[in-house]
Amino acid sequence: MWHYDAPLREMRFVIEDVLQAPAAWRSMPAFADLDMDTAAEVLAQAARFASEVLQPLNGPGDREGCRLVQGHVKTPAGFAQAWASFVEGGWPALACDPDVGGQGLPQLLNAALFEMLVSANHAWTMYPGLLHGAYETLLAHAEPALRERYLPKIVSGEWLAAMALTEPQAGSDLGLVRTKAAPRPDGSLAVTGSKIFISGGDHDLSENIVHLVLCRLPDAPAGPKGLSLALVPKFLPDGSRNAMVCDGLEHKMGIHGSATCAMRYDGAIGWLVGEPNRGLAAMFVMMNAARLHVGLQGLGHLEMAAQNARRYALERLQMRAVVRPPGASAAADPIARHPAMRRSLRSLQAVAEGLRVVAYQAAMWLDEAHRHPDAGQREQAFARAAFLTPVVKAFATHWGFQGASEALQVFGGYGYVREFGIEQTLRDSRIALVYEGTNEIQAIDLLLRKTLADGGAAFERWLDELAPAATAHDAFGSALSDQLAAARAALGSLRQAQPDDPEAPWRVADDFLMGVGHLLLAWAWARIATAARRCQDDAAWAAERESLARHGVAWVLPQARVHWHRVSAAAPLDEVRA
Hints:
The protein is an alpha+beta fold. Among the domains are: 8-67 and 75-137, Butyryl-Coa Dehydrogenase, subunit A, domain 1 (Orthogonal Bundle); 141-276, Butyryl-CoA Dehydrogenase, subunit A, domain 2, CATH 2.40.110; 438-578, no CATH class. The protein has helices spanning 8-18, 21-26, 36-64, 79-88, 107-120, 122-129, 131-141, 144-156, 279-315, 339-371, 375-411, 422-430, 439-449, 457-466, 475-497, 504-534, 539-556, 559-569, and strands at residues 67-69, 72-74, 159-164, 180-183, 189-199, 208-215, 228-233, 244-249, 260-273. The strands form 2 sheets. Strands 3, 4, 5, 6, 7, 8 and 9 form a 7-stranded mixed sheet that branches. A hairpin with a 2-residue loop joins strand 1 and strand 2 (72-74). It is globular, with a radius of gyration of 24 Å. The relative contact order is 0.09. The model has no long low-confidence stretch (mean pLDDT 95).
């Protein structure tokens, strides 16, 4: 019974009615010829690929996993064929620049594509997950000759990419990276060192894998200011195998079909990307793109969990509901009629629909940051997207795992066994809270770097931009207005506490991010309700969107008070003792 139906109608509603993206596209010459009918057809084709090709491989791929055979990684049956179909369909090139072989479509559509891919098969989607980030990094920082050699193959998907940052002693603190890069007479580098937790470091999906490796040149300064970025391909331009090897595969809690590799570089030949000792600046282009995709993983898991739990609850008969509809039979009712299940199921759906608005808005701002003809608009959109990125990454992945856990509860004992699928979603979703910068690091980035660094001025301007959605004289306007006031009060408390208690922001950063996440849900639900009231073609469907948003305000949003209270109180923490 476990399967995936892409929520195409809801996706189109968010893109066309809530965010009104087609009007924004007309203001950007690169997208001026794109209309909603064309966009809808792209989404429909993506949905078919996700549900017909990827989703049937999800459970079997989890059970089979990846294997290391004589130094080569073998992915689960069907994964390589699915990748070949993905490349043949031109999907890797969807949001890439036409000048380098891309289709030139918006990041917004790419975000919707990746929501569907992750919903259907997270492990498989790990392989293309870093591809767009690698494309953006090379486009922005690589020398022309390097771009010409590698970018077309990456854009087309003929070659895949891997991001090699982490070492045993250098996880979140990349300043501890030890991998060395020695200049060679021909201008290339000899890269030597070991990396761990490298997603897609080796596999059999593409004929070449382009590794972007953080390393140190001779005499580089210590710490993060001494890091450089090198492009190190699995196969060199002459066709020979580079001096790199997969030493082992991690045996993980979930995403078993994704090859998480320990890689060793034994003087592997590579080329510098960007300036010497400026590798982090180049790498952050890739990491920021990856963080949005990880946020979409959270949304995808939540959507998959919610819709399957809903299907199960409508079919599973058990006991009699407390209040039964008129004319209901005397037999047992579907558990979806029971109050506890109604509350869970509607909360999951309400959050999924709200998060979709937030994540798609981030992607839309990225489109404006790169494509809007006005420089001021581009700068403003980039700042908005940068602010939203850590929230999308952390808050959506929190809900991906939390939602999967609540959905498992709907299945009862059946949820705990393999055959019903939800236990795999729970396992797969958990990693998203950890990689691409843990959620705690995202919270520190949001509060310390992006909010308090300028005394909160940019944050307050951003709150002002959200405020128009709070002007409606209804429950949605009131709820958003309360959240905006709570955010401003929390910021004021932190400003007052910080001079005498410098650690205070660090203690409450997680709660600050969660508070902002709930604020954004309130904003999204207000936008959904407004758009739903404008819908003319299906009044019942539109009313259900507003009803779900109202449920979110009543049953999910109250949790924000806990987070804002903690931020304002900034209670002290004792040391951990043995």
